[in-house]
Design brief:
Blueprint lengths: L4 H8 L3 H20 L8 H9 L4 E4 L6 H11 L3 E5 L3 H14 L6 E4 L5 H12 L5 E4 L1 H4 L2 H7 L4 E6 L19 H8 L4 E5 L4 H10 L6 E4 L7 E7 L4 H10 L5 E5 L3 H13 L4 E4 L5 H12 L5 E4 L12 E6 L6 H8 L9 E7 L1 H10 L5 H19 L4 H8 L13 H4 L5 E2 L1 H13 L6 H9 L4 H5 L16 H14 L2 E3 L7 E3 L1 H8 L5 E2 L26 H18 L3 H4 L2 H10 L4 H4 L7 H21 L18 H11 L4 H8 L3 H13 L7 H7 L2 H13 L5 H8 L5 H16 L1
Parallel strand pairs: 1-6, 1-7, 2-4, 2-5, 3-4, 5-6, 8-13, 9-11, 9-12, 10-11, 12-13
Antiparallel strand pairs: 14-17, 15-16
Helix pairs in contact: 3-4, 15-16, 19-23, 20-22, 24-26, 24-28, 31-35, 33-35
């Protein structure tokens, strides 16, 4: 039985004091009846009351705060059917299943989307028109279809709810253009109260949502974004990342966790690596068969698997309270996305570890992916990446930075639950630096971004500096003794202190606040902590198996193997790096492989290379292990997936058939750079391939000979070094392609 507006109306006509008490008792009673809870959480009751009074409502509530109940309970109590606009099929199914569990009536909640056949849709419509259904879920794409609009016009709509409302804003982390059409469509259907809900929204995103939905006068309910039970940590992303994650999972047995990767390919590959290491893991991404995706999601929810490796397509609205860790294999595209994804940990108030692996090259790759998009979209994307970079590199309290990003002040100096607070850096005086920053921002009338301000202070002669003739400013070059990281640290910490702000309408432009101007009249001590150092090893991205600073556990063996490599390079008349690269030798001097099979588990060593060059190296390692009575560290070796994965086999077979490389990339859904990465991994692991059919079409023969000769005479295969020395004559693609040819012919 559902309570109608008439019963609520009886409460409205009582004395004001009785009205408040009566309604509170009534809502609490209904909360207990329908959901089994004795009390409301946070702002829930105030939000529900606002909706039932017919007012537009805007709800900002962190993941796990109980957003769904804010529209579920009033939908059950009000006359008519609430129309819930929701972005994902998986999210709708999860919400509908949950509501049916709370109710005796199976038709209490329904959705219409592409997953239903015609007979199922007819049944849904029948239930809705009969008045049984109280919550009707549709995707924004479904809402735009004329047939659905015509059907909804026949319904008595109690109110509209826009879930995951951040999707409306281009500044949000999951922008969906279809969300921009919601307001005109619901105006066409019928004017009713509107509630918009999101777990992540900066002031800019909030303004965008309200403006686009035509709800600037809505009552805003903003809960604290602080999740005290979550631990935040940023780790450098290096070649041992797989090993680190495997070890982390193994020391947390039986705990549920989510590992986020940016690409579908990485999801598949890493899920397989976890399985090879005895971890019960499943993959989840939008490119999978929908049935398989649902099965994997259900397996995670039902605790049949402990780890899910996923793209960001997974998790939105997934109500699993006991996720104990969320690991980001790749740095997210925005802090909003990061906050929402980490918010899936510890929703029951228990332990929740949030670890992200960071390498600046990942941000560069994300920025590269934006090329070709509209300029405005690129600019927004770059600004969001800058915020992510600031979070990762800062040595300030992670919690303080996250909350500040969402417009919330965190007053404690040390949260005691993030890597920076548990390992605080020494503070240094930055009073004069702050004065320089504030004076420059003020002088330029708040019209420039942080990088331009820093360029002026450092005296960098950029094109933008010359366009605005800022090289003539008295302050130009006065801060050249400080590095860019220090200046960035001053700006970030000045923002948190309230001396600087970023313009909400022109995102990224620095402006001096009233407090900042006041500080200039009476400067006091201003101490900062310098940013964390995430400097990567030089040439770190030159070969597929590299990923960060590397060092051998056994420097004596490493030195002996380098001598052997040099000797063999003279014998075979090839550069030393052609035999084995330094990271491969360092890995050998750490894990001591003593068979050809074990050698093939070393990064950059495949079956071909192991067979051709490996015997003398494993004999050297065997002697060294025996003579020095070394106990080989079996536990340090992480099983990897066989080098010849299905993708690699497909690529090799396509090259054998002389398929153009750009056609291979298209067929496999890879960017050109990603395909070259795969081909490089193939030749570095010892497989011989022949790309002459493509190379001689792509590049002049003279260019090929010159680049080939360069690598033959060079002491390193470093792409960065090659670009530095010959890049003004040849493109990066030409150099990479010829390097593949050279390595395949000389090393394999």
């Amino acid at each position: 039985m559902y309570y109608s507006k008439t019963i609520i109306y009886l409460c409205y006509n009582e004395d004001r004091k009785i009205f408040n008490m009566g309604k509170k008792d009534f809502l609490t009673e209904q909360l207990k009846k329908h959901f089994g809870f004795d009390t409301f959480k946070g702002n829930q009751e105030a939000v529900i009351r606002n909706i039932m009074e017919g007012k537009d409502t805007f709800v900002l509530m962190p993941t796990g705060g109980g957003k769904s109940l804010c529209y579920q309970l009033p939908a059950l109590l009000m006359e008519g059917t609430a129309l819930i606009i929701s972005p994902l099929i998986a999210l709708m199914k999860n919400q509908v299943d949950a509501m049916r569990n709370f109710s005796e009536e199976n038709g209490v909640a329904h959705f219409i989307n592409s997953s239903l056949n015609k007979s199922a849709i007819d049944k849904v419509k029948e239930d809705i028109l009969s008045g049984v259904t109280k919550l009707f879920y549709v995707a924004p794409e479904s809402l735009t279809k004329e047939e659905n609009i015509e059907f909804i016009r026949q319904i008595s709509v109690s109110f509209y709810a826009v879930d995951e409302a951040h999707c409306i804003s281009e500044w949000g982390h999951d922008f969906r253009p279809e969300y921009r059409r919601i307001r005109p469509i619901i105006n066409e259907i019928a004017r009713r109260p509107l509630i918009a809900l999101t777990a992540t929204a900066t002031l800019k995103v909030q303004h965008d949502i309200q403006k686009n939905l035509g709800m600037m006068d809505a009552v805003v309910f903003k809960s604290s974004f602080n999740r005290p039970n979550l631990y935040y940590e940023v780790r450098p992303k290096n070649k041992d990342i797989d090993k680190e994650i495997v070890k982390f999972i193994k020391v947390n047995p039986g705990k549920s966790g989510i590992i986020y990767c940016l690409s579908r390919k990485k999801v598949e590959d890493f899920a397989q690596i976890l399985k090879e290491n005895g971890i019960n893991a499943l993959a989840y991404h939008a490119g999978m068969d929908s049935q398989k995706r649902s099965e994997n999601q259900d397996a995670f929810l039902m605790e049949e698997t402990e780890v899910i490796v996923a793209t960001i397509a997974f998790g939105m609205g997934i109500d699993k309270p006991d996720v104990r860790y969320v690991i980001h294999y790749d740095i997210p595209k925005s802090l909003e996305g990061y906050y929402q994804e980490t918010g899936r940990a510890g929703r029951d108030g228990g332990e929740g570890k949030c670890i992200v692996f960071y390498a600046n090259k990942d941000l560069q790759k994300l920025e590269k992916f934006m090329q070709g998009k509209p300029v405005s979209e690129q600019e927004i994307g770059k600004q969001l990446l800058e915020e992510t970079k600031a979070y990762a590199e800062s040595s300030l309290c992670r919690r303080k930075m996250l909350l500040h990003y969402f417009g919330e002040d965190y007053t404690k100096d040390n949260c005691g639950c993030c890597d920076n607070c548990l390992n605080p850096k020494k503070q240094v005086e930055a009073k004069e630096l702050l004065i320089s920053i504030l004076e420059t921002v003020d002088l330029l009338n708040n019209k420039f971004k942080a990088d331009h301000i820093i360029n002026i202070l450092q005296g960098k002669e950029t094109s933008e500096i010359y366009i605005y003739e800022h090289q003539y400013l008295e302050i130009f070059g006065t801060g050249c003794e400080e590095d860019e990281k220090t200046w960035n640290a001053v700006i970030r910490q000045a923002m948190i202190a309230g001396y600087l702000d970023k313009d909400i309408e022109n995102y990224g432009l620095l402006k001096i606040t009233f407090a900042g101007k006041k500080y200039l009249t009476n400067p006091t001590s201003f101490k900062i902590t310098k940013d964390n150092d995430f400097e990567e090893e030089e040439n770190v991205e030159e070969t597929p198996m590299r990923g960060g600073a590397v060092c051998a556990v056994d420097p004596i063996l490493y030195s002996m193997m380098k001598d052997l490599r040099k000797k063999l390079s003279k014998k075979w008349d090839v550069p030393p790096y052609v035999i084995f690269q330094d990271p491969s030798l360092e890995a050998m001097a750490t894990t001591y492989p003593i068979t050809i099979e074990e050698l093939q588990n070393i990064p950059g060593v495949g079956a071909g290379k192991a067979k051709r060059y490996g015997q003398e190296f494993i004999e050297l390692i065997k002697r060294h292990v025996t003579e020095n009575e070394i106990e080989r560290p079996e536990d340090l070796r992480i099983r990897t997936v066989a080098n010849k994965s299905k993708l690699k086999i497909d690529i090799v077979q396509s090259i054998d058939r002389k398929v153009a490389l750009n056609d291979i990339a298209l067929a496999k859904g890879l960017e050109a750079d990603e395909l070259l990465d795969e081909i490089e991994a193939i030749v570095y692991s010892g497989t011989k391939i022949n790309i002459d059919y493509f190379l001689y079409e792509f590049t002049d023969e003279d260019h090929i000979e010159d680049i080939y000769l360069y690598f033959k005479e060079s002491e390193t295969d470093s792409l960065e070094k090659a670009i530095e020395e010959i890049g003004n004559e040849y493109t990066e693609e030409e150099i990479r392609l010829v390097r593949i040819k050279f390595l395949s012919e000389m090393a394999n």
